[in-house]
Every structure is written in C-alpha cells, then in structure tokens.
Amino acid sequence: MKKQLLLSVLSSIALWLLSVPAAIAQCSICTKTAQQLGEGPAEGMNTGILYLAFAPFAIIGYIGYRWYKANRNEG
Question: What is the pLDDT of residue 26?
Fold first, then answer.
C-alpha cells in the first residue's frame, strides 16, 4: 500500500515537472549574458542552470528518504 502511494506521488511530481513550461532560471547577470548570446544558447543556459539546481534537491531528497526509512518504525 505504501509503495503504491509513493509511486503515485512520484509519478504525479514527474508529470507535473514535465508539463511545466520552461522556467526562467537566471539571475540578472545571467539574463544580460543570455540576451547577448541569442535565443539558442540562452535556452541551453537555462537548461544548464536547472540541471545544476536539480542535483542538490535530489541529494537532499535521497538523504530525507533514507532518514525517513530508518526512523519510521521507531517510537
């Protein structure tokens, strides 16, 4: 039962992330740089920024999952 809940939550999150339009993930300096590069390289820059932002969230999520799994039967 818990595996089905976890799977449905993860599937929902994955579908939501795939349906979100391209995010603008640039600071003001990166925005000015991207404007000078043109449309194609700017999209690649956005993708790279989002990719780099995903890694810390994935690590924290993995640590949180392991912590939850280790402590769920206590108490």
Answer: 60
